[in-house]
Request: fold
Amino acid sequence: MIRRLEVEPGDKLVARLENGAILLQRRPRSLVEYLDSFPRGVYGRNREEIDGYIAEGRADRHLPGAEARESTNK
Reply:
């Protein structure tokens, strides 16, 4: 099982419960490795689509104090 996880000395594991089973996964060694594990095209196929996805997410959330900042920027 350790070989299948590609675990090496010093690596950290992440455990999560999913459908009643404990899943173990090797924690990525770097941010680049982590981001590279995402499926391609999920957030957009090009920079404009990705930027649009991020802008929608930011517009949908309510940040405390946003009203106060908006009123002082007028």
